[in-house]
Automatic annotation (TrEMBL):
Protein name: Major facilitator superfamily (MFS) profile domain-containing protein
KW GTP-binding (keyword) present: no
The organism of origin for this protein: Friedmanniomyces simplex
Transmembrane segments: 72-92, 99-117, 123-145, 157-179, 191-210, 289-311, 323-345, 352-372, 400-422, 434-457, 469-487
Family: Belongs to the major facilitator superfamily. Sugar transporter (TC 2.A.1.1) family.
Keyword DNA-binding: no
GO MF terms, alphabetically ordered: carbohydrate:proton symporter activity
Topological type in the membrane: Multi-pass membrane protein
C-alpha cells in the first residue's frame, strides 16, 4: 500500500457518512441469519410430537419418544452450536467474517440434508450435530460482521434486526409445526426439517455479493481492501472524507490495541481474551466476562421456558382448551414487541434498556408466581370426568396476561440488547473470539436450561408449577443489579470509541462520556496530517492472532 492518503479528522469522530438506503440494506441483510437461529430452536418441538417421526425413531407401533432419545435429539443441536460458535472466532479471523458465515451456511445445509434424508436416529442426530455447528458459526459471526459494518448511529437498531429475525424464525417454526403436525406421511417431519435449507441458501448466496468487514481487513493488514469494503458499506467513493476518517480511526485503534496486547501465536491469541485485571473495567478479561455473562443472564431471564415448555405447562392447569393458540400469542407478542427496540436502543441507549427491561420482567415474573401460588395455576381440582382443572380460571388468565407483558419486556430489551452489546465491547484484536465465546455462552445456558427445566416442573419431579416463575424472577433480579453495575453505555460510539470509553469510565458513568480525541490523533497524527506510519505498521504486522 502506498502509505498515505488517510487523514484524521479534527472532529473527534463526529464525521460520519450519511446513512443511505443501500447502506441499510447491505448492513441489514445478514440479520436474516437470525431466521435459522429461531427456526432451529422452535421446529423440533413439533417434529418430536409427530407420530410418523416417533415411529421412524422408536419403531412401528410406538407412540412416544423415549426420554433419552428425546433429550438427545433436542440437545445435540446446542452441543453443535456451542462448539461451532467457539471455533467460528478463529475461522473468522483467518478467512474473514463473510466467508465464515458462508462456510457456516454450507455446513448447515449438509446437516439439513442428512436430517431430511433420515430414516432413523443415527442420521438424524449426526445431521443435527452438523447443522448445529453451522448455526454456531452463523450466530456468532453474523453479530460480529453486522457490528463491524453498521454505521454507529444505527448499529444498535440494525443488530436488533437480527433478534427480530430470530423471533420470526420462532413464529414460522410454530406455524409449520402446527401445519404439518397432523400429517400421516413422512412429510410431517421432512417438510419442517427440509425448509431450513432455504434459510442457509439465501444467506450463503446473498453474502457472496457483500463485502467483508473493513475491520477484518485492517486486522489482516490489507488496507486497500479495507478501504474498498468501507466505501462499499458506506455507499461512498473510496476517496471520500468519510471513508478516510473512519479508516484512519480503525487503523489507529488497531495499532494502539496491538501495542498493548503481546503478539504471539494461537495460544497467546486465546490467552489475550483473559488478560488483565478483573477489577479494571477495560481489561480484556473483564470484557470477556461481560460478554459471556451478559448472554448467560439473557438465558437466565427464563424466556426459553416459555418458548420450549409453554405447551405442557399450560396443559397442566386444564384451564386452557387451545394451548397452541396461547403459545402462538406468546410467539406473536415476541415478534411484535421486538421492533420497538429499533427506536429505543438508539434513543435511550443499551444500559437503560437492559436495566428497565430486567425490572419489568422481574415484576411480571413475581406477579405470575404470586398469583399462581395464591389463586391461579397451582390451585386445581379434578372434575367429574377425571380432568384436572384450575379452581380460578380468571386468575390463570391474569397470569397469562402477565406472561405476555413479561415477553414484551424481554423482546424489546434483553432479547436484542444482549446481542447488540456483545458485538460492541471487544477491541479488534480479541473481537472475533470474544463474540464467539459470548455466543457459545448463550448456547451453553440455553442447553443447560432446556435440560434442567423439565426436572423443575415435571409433576413426578420438582412439580414447581407456576412457582418456577419465582426462580426466573430471582434470576431477573440478578440481571437487573448486573446491568446497573456492569453494563456500559455504547450508544452512538464507533467501536473504536467504545474502546476508549471503557478505558476512561466505569459502566455507571459511561453514558456521560464524550470523545475528546481520536485514536488517530493519539497515535501521533496531527489534524489533517497523514497516517503513513500507522498504515505501514499495520500492514506489516497484519495478524490473525
Ligand atoms: C435468545 C433465544 C430466545 C429468543 C427468543 C434470543 O435472543 O438468545 O434463546 O429463544 O431470543 O426470541
Amino acid at each position: 500500500m502506498p502509505g498515505g492518503g488517510i487523514s484524521a479528522t479534527s472532529d473527534v469522530g463526529a464525521i460520519e457518512a450519511p446513512v443511505t438506503f443501500k447502506t441499510y440494506l447491505m448492513c441489514a441483510f445478514a440479520s436474516f441469519g437470525g431466521m435459522f437461529f429461531g427456526y432451529d430452536s422452535g421446529y423440533i418441538n413439533g417434529v418430536t410430537g409427530s407420530s410418523v417421526f416417533i415411529q421412524v425413531i422408536e419403531g412401528a407401533g410406538k407412540t412416544t419418544l423415549s426420554g433419552p432419545h428425546n433429550s438427545l435429539i433436542v440437545s445435540i443441536l446446542s452441543a453443535g452450536t456451542f462448539f461451532g460458535a467457539i471455533a467460528a472466532g478463529d475461522v473468522a479471523d483467518t478467512i474473514g467474517r463473510k466467508w465464515t458465515v458462508i462456510t457456516g451456511c454450507a455446513i448447515y445445509i449438509v446437516g439439513v440434508i442428512l436430517q431430511t434424508a433420515t430414516n432413523g436416529l443415527g442420521l438424524l442426530v449426526a445431521g443435527r450435530l452438523i447443522a448445529g455447528i453451522g448455526v454456531g458459526f452463523e450466530s456468532a459471526i453474523v453479530i460480529l460482521y453486522m457490528s463491524e459494518i453498521c454505521p454507529k448511529k444505527v448499529r444498535g437498531a440494525l443488530v436488533a434486526g437480527y433478534q427480530f429475525c430470530i423471533t420470526l424464525g420462532l413464529l414460522l417454526a410454530a406455524c409449520v409445526a402446527y401445519g404439518t403436525g397432523k400429517m400421516t406421511t413422512d412429510a410431517s417431519y421432512r417438510i419442517p426439517i427440509g425448509l431450513q435449507f432455504i434459510f442457509g441458501f439465501i444467506l450463503g448466496v446473498g453474502l457472496l455479493f457483500l463485502p467483508d468487514s473493513p475491520r477484518f481487513y485492517v486486522k489482516r493488514g490489507r488496507i486497500e481492501q479495507a478501504r474498498k469494503a468501507l466505501a462499499s458499506v458506506r455507499d461512498q467513493p473510496q476517496d471520500s472524507e468519510y471513508v478516510e476518517a473512519e479508516l484512519a480511526e480503525i487503523i489507529a485503534n488497531e495499532e494502539y490495541e496491538r501495542s498493548l496486547i503481546p503478539a504471539g501465536g494461537w495460544v497467546n491469541g486465546w490467552l489475550n481474551c483473559f488478560s488483565g485485571s478483573v477489577f479494571k473495567s477495560n481489561s480484556n478479561l473483564r470484557k470477556t466476562i461481560l460478554g459471556t455473562s451478559l448472554q448467560m443472564m439473557q438465558q437466565w431471564t427464563g424466556i426459553n421456558f416459555i418458548f420450549y415448555f409453554s405447551t405442557p405447562f399450560l396443559q397442566s392447569t386444564g384451564a386452557i382448551k387451545n394451548t397452541f393458540l396461547i403459545s402462538l400469542i406468546f410467539t406473536l407478542v415476541n415478534v411484535c414487541s421486538t421492533p420497538i427496540s429499533f427506536y429505543t436502543v438508539e434513543k435511550f441507549g443499551r444500559r437503560p434498556l437492559l436495566i428497565w427491561g430486567a425490572l419489568g420482567m422481574l415484576i411480571c415474573e413475581f406477579l405470575v408466581g404470586i398469583i399462581g401460588d395464591t389463586v391461579g395455576f397451582n390451585r386445581t381440582h379434578t372434575d367429574a370426568t377425571g380432568t384436572t382443572i384450575a379452581n380460578n380460571i380468571p386468575a390463570v388468565n391474569a397470569q397469562i396476561a402477565f406472561i405476555c407483558i413479561y415477553i414484551f419486556f424481554f423482546a424489546s430489551t434483553w432479547g436484542p440488547g444482549a446481542w447488540i452489546v456483545i458485538g460492541e465491547v471487544f477491541p479488534l484484536p480479541i473481537r472475533a473470539r470474544g463474540v464467539a465465546l459470548s455466543t457459545a455462552s448463550n448456547w451453553l445456558w440455553n442447553c443447560i436450561i432446556a435440560v434442567i427445566t423439565p426436572y423443575m416442573v415435571n409433576p413426578g419431579e420438582g412439580n414447581l408449577k407456576s412457582n418456577v416463575f419465582f426462580i426466573w424472577g430471582a434470576l431477573c433480579t440478578a440481571a437487573f443489579v448486573y446491568a446497573y453495575f456492569l453494563v456500559p453505555e455504547t450508544k452512538g460510539l464507533s467501536l473504536e470509541q467504545v474502546d476508549k470509553m471503557m478505558e476512561e469510565t466505569t459502566p455507571r458513568t459511561s453514558a456521560k462520556w464524550r470523545p475528546t480525541t481520536t485514536f488517530a490523533q493519539d497515535m501521533g497524527m496531527k489534524e489533517g496530517g497523514k497516517l503513513d506510519m500507522n498504515v505501514e505498521d499495520v500492514e506489516r504486522k497484519g495478524s490473525i492472532f
